[in-house]
Amino acid sequence: xxxxxxxxxxxxxxxxxxxxxxxxxxxxxxxxxxxxxxxxxxxxxxxxxxxxxxxxxxxxxxxxxxxxxxxxxxxxxxxxxxxxxxxxxxxxxxxxxxxxxxxxxxxxxxxxxxxxxxxxxxxxxxxxxxxxxxxxxxxxxxxxxxxxxxxxxxxxxxxxxxxxxxxxxxxxxxxxxxxxxxxxxxxxxxxxxxxxxxxxxxxxxxxxxxxxxxxxxxxxxxxxxxxxxxxxxxxxxxxxxxxxxxxxxxxxxxxxxxxxxxxxxxxxxxxxxxxxxxxxxxxxxxxxxxxxxxxxxxxxxxxxxxxxxxxxxxxxxxxxxxxxxxxxxxxxxxxxxxxxxxxxxxxxxxxxxxxxxxxxxxxxxxxxxxxxxxx
Length: 375
Hints:
Blueprint (H helix, E strand, L loop, with lengths): L1 H20 L8 H7 L9 E6 L3 H11 L4 E5 L2 H8 L5 E3 L6 H4 L3 E7 L5 H9 L3 E7 L3 H9 L1 H8 L4 E4 L2 H9 L5 E3 L21 E8 L3 H8 L6 E7 L5 H14 L4 E3 L10 E3 L6 H7 L2 E4 L13 H4 L5 E3 L7 H5 L1 E2 L1 E3 L5 H6 L6 E2 L5 H9 L3
Parallel strand pairs: 1-2, 1-4, 2-3, 4-5, 5-6, 6-7, 8-9, 8-12, 9-11, 10-11, 12-13, 13-15
Antiparallel strand pairs: 14-16
């Protein structure tokens, strides 16, 4: 009761700010749905309710969820869009205040990684669900912050029946926060790999992908690169709302170097030297035919890196920055990554780089069976 009163006071205080941000395109659907229940009726009952944050996490759960009668709750708009493509029983997860009467019954609740909300697990347990925390991890950067709120996380873990951790280090940290019944199964992202949906012919030029880039990284990388005649660049921003801005950056880069530029969405045949991949769900198809991937999210401090395993499944050379602390476990699963601060990027791109490879992966069938045992 005290926690719900606290949530109500927080919600009341934040209402003016929520109203302000709800006019922004990025939050136009999520804020009204999550904080005001606008067009956000409860999920239909299912055997397994999966909850994850955004596009990448939902993407990791797609194949797993197809083994069950499932439903999805998400936090972001891109996450919901992705979930609805393969599961119509998908909604935004409302703010904690609304969960006591919004949450539908399920036999199992599977929470992905760090989506730890007290009312979500508490009322799922009250509804009779077996609660699983899947792919659990505590990053180096987050660990001290978690410890400051240990009292809160202890209450959460009191309502979690099974924790499937990524590594032994995660197991130790999770125990410190109050988690019980922990099983180290590895990272599901290393076993549940997204597959190619379309086959593109390989380019005669050397295809270099600048993958999952964030604000500031495109400019930093392109400023460091001196393109050669046999090179073709595919720029793939992480967030779709940045496509327009990155298009201008790429266009300016092309003009400075007397190169041709096009956007993927323009359907011009992919004949240009610089191509902006301004669409979702296509990057995996280009990983298969590329020659090198510059994996972003790692060149500017504050992001923490991205998943290298999707690339390593194709044994493509990977170039990365040093700021990958949020993906340390995944980086440890991949061999052959070349690290740089971009000062020597042109020399590196000229080398016959070592191919990346996945060192080991978790047992996907084991995870499926652990969930099935509770249905």
